[in-house]
UniProtKB/TrEMBL annotation:
Gene3D superfamilies xref list: Ribonuclease H-like superfamily/Ribonuclease H
UniProt protein name: IS21 family transposase
Highest taxon of source: Bacteria
Length: 226
């Protein structure tokens, strides 16, 4: 092992474009040593990991801890709150104070198999041709030519799910009239699907119950029935 100052000198000279042979001659060490320290930046360094304090949860009844963790679906916030409300029920000292972070770290280290699997960033969705059109309203900022600042605009957007064909329509607002104008324009241009999917906007849907019963908004043309 060489002196830390020599190790730094090797890297400094090499960063200036000096050859390994030249560095070895100047510093009085072998070329192989210079090469070894250049390809391994941690060579000769002593890395000490900080010692972590043992979690208080080691003293708890482990069977009860695992049962609690599974019962709440791995929610560490709930686990921490339940344990703190009655720590003695889990074999822990009275007046215990524990955080969600401590609970998460403990279970991640000692019971990694109990942790719920990470959900994928997206789930694929497929439908057959002609099945579904998805619609929504979004707000955007647009700076018109000659205007000093950007203005808020309302965009009706629709996507035919089977082909990914998109449709965008600028509306004056997000009222029911704008919804219907956007839908009608889209259907006249690209065709009528079997289903139109929206996000329960109040301009179209008053309520959507879990039993799949809907209460649609009434218009001057009757009920909006999507």
């Amino acid at each position: 092992m060489i002196d830390p100052l020599v190790r730094q000198e090797i890297r400094y000279r090499h960063s200036l474009g000096e050859s390994e042979r030249s560095i070895a001659q100047v510093l009085g060490i072998s070329r192989n040593t210079v090469h070894a320290y250049l390809i391994d930046e941690t060579r000769g360094m002593q890395i000490h990991a900080p010692a972590r304090r043992k979690s208080i949860l080691h003293k708890a009844n482990q069977d009860q801890l695992q049962y609690l963790f599974n019962a709440v679906g791995g929610n560490c916030v709930v686990v921490a709150r339940i344990i703190q409300d009655d720590p003695q029920a889990y074999g822990l000292p009275k007046n215990l104070s524990i955080t969600e972070r401590s609970v998460r770290r403990f279970f991640a280290t000692h019971y990694p198999n109990l942790r719920s699997k990470t959900k994928p960033a997206f789930e694929p969705f497929h439908c057959y041709p002609g099945q579904q059109l998805q619609i929504d309203f979004i707000q955007a900022q647009f700076q018109f030519d000659g205007e000093p600042v950007a203005q808020k605009i309302y965009l009706f957007e629709a996507v035919y799910r089977w082909s990914r064909k998109g449709f965008v329509f600028v509306c004056p607002d997000t009222s029911q009239a704008s919804w219907l104008m956007g839908i009608a324009t889209c259907l006249m241009r690209y065709g009528l699907p079997q289903q139109i999917l929206c996000d329960n906007d109040k301009s179209l849907v008053i309520s959507h119950r879990r039993d799949e019963k809907f209460n649609f908004t009434r218009t001057s043309f009757g009920y909006v029935n999507l």
